[in-house]
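FORM 7B: Structural annotation worksheet

SECTION A. Query
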Amino acid sequence: MTDDTLSPGVPPLSPSTPTSDMPGMDCLAVCNMLLDLAGDEGLSPQDLQSLLYLAHGLHLRRTGGRPLVYGYFEAWEQGPVHPTLQSHLTGFQGLDLTVDLKLRFLRRRSLMDPMVHRPTPPESPMAIGCGILVVQMFRHLSPDQLHDLVTAPGSPWDTVLSSAVARGVCGFRIPDGVIRAKFHMHKLLIVSNT
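SECTION B. Predicted structure
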């Protein structure tokens, strides 16, 4: 199964599309987009982390390695976590980011421009397409199913955590190269559960 078979509404990256070492977008801008796409039901903080991670991984795969968001993900016990997002989610644990809470979340300052209260929403068709696809495909999953998906055996999270634990190392950063190389393991879990 290729990335394109999962996303008929998102144009594939053409071989002539240039790739670069772009740093990615502000994770808060991408999260705001994901919250908008999720609608009134909202998302739990952990679901938001998981959907951000999945959108980032899909974007890496579809663009030849360009990150969706700048920064990095870490392999925490509950799954992949973007530390910058985690710092902004303090105080929201155990709550859904619904309309009222989302308004408070959106007012947080952008890391890119501290004078702007709401980060600029993504304009890239690829970024928007990855966000739409991830919300459409995974929003319906229960928290346990979403956790199982992002922590699947052989996934980037599992690969990094297993390696770090075996070596007794702390600081379980998940490099984009590992996400890109192992991201297909998430889709294998989806296919095997259907």
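SECTION C. Observations
Residues 25 and 123 are 10 Å apart (CA to CA). The chain has ten helices and three strands.

SECTION D. Sign-off
Analyst initials: ____
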